[in-house]
Amino acid sequence: MSRPVSDLNTLLSTLALDLRPGVWAFETTPEPVLLNGAIMLFAEREGWTQIRPATPGDLANNRWCWIELGVYSDLHAVGFIAEISRILAQNALPCNVVAGFNHDHLFIPEDQCARAVEVLQAINGGD
Questions:
Q1: Which domains, ranges and CATH numbers included, belong to the chain?
Q2: pTM of model > 0.90
Q3: CA distance 46 to 92
Q4: Pick from 99, 76, 92: which is nearest to 8 by CA?
C-alpha cells in the first residue's frame, strides 16, 4: 500500500477515480441493524445512517453513484475535500462525502454521475 498523502497539490495531481458498481441509497434506522448489502453504518443523534444498495422502490432523488477517490489521502490532509467540493459546487453538482481510512468517497446523484466524473477527471487532466 502507498503512503498517505497530505500535500494538497499532490493529492489533486495524482487523483484517480474509481466508479464503483451499483446504485446506492441512504436510509436511516432507529437501531444499528445493518441492512442487506449496506456499505456504511454511522451513528447520529437521530438514528443510524446507512448506505445500502438501491432498490426499485427507492425514490429517484435517493439513487446515488459511488465514486472512490483513488489517492491515499492522509486523515490530516487539509483542503482536499474542500477543493473537490468547491469544483463540484461550481458545476452545480451535489455530493455526499464519506471519509474512509485510506480513501474519500463521493456519492453523487445517479442522473448526474457522468457529468461529475467528467468534471473530476479534469482536475488533473487525466482519467
A1: 8-121 (3.30.2130.10)
A2: yes
A3: 29
A4: 76
